[in-house]
Amino acid sequence: MAETTNVKEHLESKLTGVSLAWSEYRSQRRVSVPSSSIEAALRALRDAGMDQLIDITAVDMLEYPGASDRFEVVYLLLNTTSGERLTVKTHLNEPDLKLPSAYPIWIGADWPEREVYDMFGIIFEGHPNFKRLLLPDAFESFPLRKDYPVKGRGERHNFPIITRAES
Amino acid sequence: MPLDLIDSPDLDAGYREGLWTLNFGPQHPATHTTLRLVLQLDGEMVISAEPDIGFLHSGFEKLAEVLDYNQYVTIVDRMNYISPLANEIAWHHAVEGLLGIDLTPRCKYIRTIFAELMRIHDHLLCTGTCVLDLGGATAFMYAFNEREKIYEICERASGQRFHTSYTRVGGLLYDVTDDWIKMVRDFCKTFPQAYRDFAGLVMKNRIFVERTRGVGVLSKQDAIAGGATGPVARASGVERDLRRDEPYLAYDDLDFDVCCAQGGDCYARFQVRMMEMLESLKIIEQAVENLPSGPVFISGTGKEGLPDKTEVYRSIEGLIHHFENIMPNRQMPSPKESFYGATESPNGELGYYIVSDGDFKAYRARTRPPSLLHFSLFNRMIQGCMLSDVAAVLGSINIIAAELDR
User: Is B319 exposed, middle or buried (0-12, 13-18, 19+ CB in 10 A)?
Assistant: First the structure.
């Protein structure tokens, strides 16, 4: 497990003075980074060998017992050579739902970031083509937030119908 | 190539105006399901392609927050419906990782056999339709003939051909019968001949090779940075296979090779899938001959696994046990943690990131769909190719819109 310590040391040496919270669950290592230094942290991790971004996702912690922050953004990273994985978490609160885009670091951040915006309304600044991915552009809500009902808000019934002549 | 051209600011405005915009899909035979591409064409050359997805978005991840770990298996079935059981295995692999459940040896082997049958099932469709899109309908029919046999194997085990919903937390819906084992053995005997017939029609077919070789190249760098996994990454020379690198189920005991290619083009992806089918067959043969005996569910009385159906119907203890495991306020508690469990699905790394707040259902369950990451690289693969290559590249990355949109 020599490589694991390397990643930790590398990240801590690059981010001096930043509080990093390391944890582990069933041998999966996680690190929580303040949102202000997420870009530097991701860059440092890429340089430390984490060459693949597996996924970006978010969790709305609104109803989570004991949670103090509203949103948790999760980056799943992988080192394709050694097979080592690391989960990077960062927390966001309304109204400041902005993070720097990871697209300049890994091109694979493109669609996952757009999906996180689509579902949670978190904005990634610096993304080259930032707009909704799955839902129509006219959609106003962010459906994976916990305050959005499972049955929806009737958007489907009130959706503007485009006629053949208009299309 | 036009790749640099389109981004350059001093690109002639007149040239841009001369480009032709073509809508490809959402209803087009080569998209297989519903997805749309907006292509910018210079004559017949594709300058850029912008995918537009979401036509099949059904809010699966929202449903995961309402349904419990066993109920949600019916939803994951419907994500990559070309290999439903592979999704179920991936979902319960992640759930069992979160709960810390270690499966019985028999369950591990049966799941392994099904995971590999699903790989053959998926690759047969992908390779078959890839040829079909390029005009070869015969090979497609050869592939579908074999898929039918796998459907029958699924039906014998679970009662369903397609959406099997066969796995449960800590086990399987039913144990398999001797009859099922015979069917798998028969399949192992007949598949090599069918494979030879199929491969003989296609692998050295001059039209097919010329339509796919050098087309839709994905470089190794882009494959890694872009999050490509599975056959798409292996065809670009990324030597990674979760079955070997992070062994789960029974893969540690079994002997198989990881299939790679260097080209990164459509033909390389096709080759990798063809080779993987033979490796899968090798795994199935080993697993079915060494199938351990014993129960398919962990522990007989605890809350982790469901009781055997015969016990539920024939004894009061079994019925109470079943009741205790099914009722929402009596189910097994899960740790207040987050866990990412990934498996090597036929399409690539299929993972589930589960956050639990203590109930027997997910607080949030994110699907990491391999198709999504692969399709986001489509623009890079297609630039500079011809319009007719769009169908070839789409076919070779095996986009399943239900998994893409969820």
Answer: middle
d(CA B125, CA B187): 17
Its pTM stands at 0.90
Output the CATH code of domain B60-405: 1.10.645.10
Average pLDDT, chain A: 86
Q: Nearest C-alpha of chain B: how many angstroms from A16?
A: 27
Residues B164-220 have pLDDT tens digits of 889 988 888 888 889 999 999 999 999 999 999 999 888 888 888 988 888 889 999
- State ipTM: 0.90
Of B226, B240, B405, the CB nearest to A107: B226
| Cis omega (within 30 of 0) for bond into A95 | yes
Enumerate the CATH 1.10.645.10 domain ranges in chain B, comma separated.
60-405
Q: What is the pLDDT of residue B170?
A: 84
User: Whose CA is closest to B95, among A52, A61, A86, A26?
Assistant: A26
* Cα gap B264→B213, rounded to integer Å: 9
Pairs of CB atoms within 8 A across A/B: 106
Q: Hey, is the C-beta of A150 within 8 angstroms of any chain B C-beta?
A: yes
pLDDT digits (tens, 9 = 90+) for B97-121: 998 888 889 999 999 999 999 999 9
Q: What type of residue is B52? A: D
CA B202 – CA B205 distance, rounded (Å):
5
Q: Which residues in chain A are closer than 8 Å to B351, comparing Cβ atoms?
A: 54-55, 76
Domains (range + CATH), chain A: 7-125 (3.30.460.80)
Residues of A in contact with B3 (CB under 8 A): none
- Over residues B301-329, the mean pLDDT reads 81
B211 residue type, one letter: R
